[in-house]
Design goal:
This protein is α/β, with parallel strands linked by helices. It has ten helices and six strands, in the order ααβαααβααβαβαβαβ. It binds zinc ion (ZN) (2 copies).
Amino acid sequence: MDESGERRGLWSWVLDLVYPGLCHGCGEGIAGDRSLCGACRDSLPSLRMPFCRSCGEEFEGRIEGAFDCPNCRDLEFSFEFARPALPNHPLVLGMIHDLKYGRRIELAGELGRLAGRAFADDPRLAVALAEGWPLVPVPLHRRRRLWRYFNQAEEIARSLARATGLPLCPALRRIRSTGSQTRLSRAQRLKNLRGAFALSAAGGTFAAAKPAGAVVVDDVFTTGATSDECARMLRRAGVQKVVVVTVMRG
Ligand SMILES: [Zn+2]
Ligand SMILES: [Zn+2]
């Protein structure tokens, strides 16, 4: 076993002591590296048609064909579309919250596998699978990463890479701290995010080859301002198409 394998082994052993395999939903004991039991996992709804083709917001009623919701109708995104794997759900929101603020890094495995549902359910993502588009996590500023020890989007993307077979490419880095965006409007968020990202060395090499596409990965899709700014950077650097995949619609 190499050194990193040994470290991972020790780490999961420590986590087993602290969090002994309990389902995050019902508290039942579970085996292996899962965070949800089969019943809780099966109880989670997938995104149901019809939903907005740009942001994945579900719509009540009957709509034939693709449509944009009232929020997206007048917006020009740099990405082709954003596809949350699941609609807003309290159990998943709780897991994401514990991953980010409780530093429960082991939850990223289950969340990444849940994000994989987007690829199983949405035919628009078949081209990404067929052409092996890399997964690009939304970057975290160094200061926030130091506090949390990890970037939740990158950990989710790592698990999603295992589930889909797509490569992980941390192509972007955050060069300016943007603070919390939760209380800002979409326009304020966009302004706040300008100049916040830059290409990493790996991202520069990747984009310079004018690749066909990339998949930006984040935990939740809310206003789309952050993933849109990531897509804009990638497109400007030469990536032809960018799509966004998140675990959940915010
Ligand atoms: Zn359960
Ligand atoms: Zn929309």
